[in-house]
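Treating backbone geometry as a discrete language has practical consequences that deserve illustration. No coordinates are needed to read the tokens, only the vocabulary itself. For completeness, the protein is quoted in full, as a sequence line and a line of structure tokens:
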Amino acid sequence: MKKLSWQLVIPLTVISFAVFTKWWYAYPADAPDTMFTGFPLPFAGDAWHTSMALQIFLLELLFDISVYFLFWFLLVYLVNRYLLPLRIKRGLAMVLLDITALIIVYLLLIAGNRDNVFYAKRDFDMNVKKTGYKFIWQHQDRPQ
């Protein structure tokens, strides 16, 4: 299972984390309306001090990544154990690892913006008005 984790579970975790998410349109306490992203918890939102910046909540981010990892780990484990033994071909493993590396580099470039603000956890309440799911290539405007 160690080999499957490196070749399949971690790449699927990173790819699904980057491709599929949930958007949250909310009114934080004492702040303007904000679009947040993250599944199952919102871990990133528009920064309030400047445009084109994010505020990122690290504990929520780690929890979300853990949920994705646990989902893929259990799915791969159950399929490998009870349905059919999984054998990952070297070419497929390399493609998955290359895509994973590109996604990680892209996310690190976004996180490296000097204007981004990192918090340990979200320390404000928010009133969620609307939510929905989206893929990375879909654009979600603020609901009316």
